[in-house]
What does this fold into?
Amino acid sequence: MDEEAPFFELSDTKNFIRVTVLRKSYPDAADNWDNNWVDATIKVKAGPFTGTYNVQLRIIDFQFFRKELRTIYDNLTGLAKFEDIDRYLSINMKGDGAGHFETYCILMFDPGAEEITLKFNLHPDQTQIMPIVRQLDNILAVFPVIGGLRKG
It folds into this structure.
C-alpha cells in the first residue's frame, strides 16, 4: 500500500491509542458477516506501558463509534463507545457537558486465553472529537460496511 493505512487516534497530553486498519480479513468472503472484518493494529502508550498488537475488528464498530462521537460532540454529554465483539478494545467516552471527555479504555490481548489486560483513562477535549470523526470517515471510505449488519 503506497499511502498510509487509515487510522483513528485518541490521545491526551501523555497517552494515546491508535487503531490502524490494514486490510480486509476475508477479502473473498461470500457473506456480509465475514466480509466486514478487518485486520488492524492497536498501538498504545499508557503511563510507562507501551505496545502494539494485531487484532481483527468488525468495520461496523467503527461506524457506530463515529455516529456516537458526532452526538457527544454536538451535545457535549452522553456516551460514545467502541466495543468490539471479541473484547480486544473497549473505549467509553463520556462528555461532562463542558467540552471535556473522560475516556475509559480497556485493551486486551488474547481474550479468552491469556487475557492480558491494560486499563487506563484518557482526557481529550471537544477540539479532538472532530479530527477523530474525520479519521473514522477515512477508515469507512476505504473499508465501507457491506450489507445491513447490526451492532452486537
Q: What stands out?
A: DSSP finds three helices and eight strands in the chain.
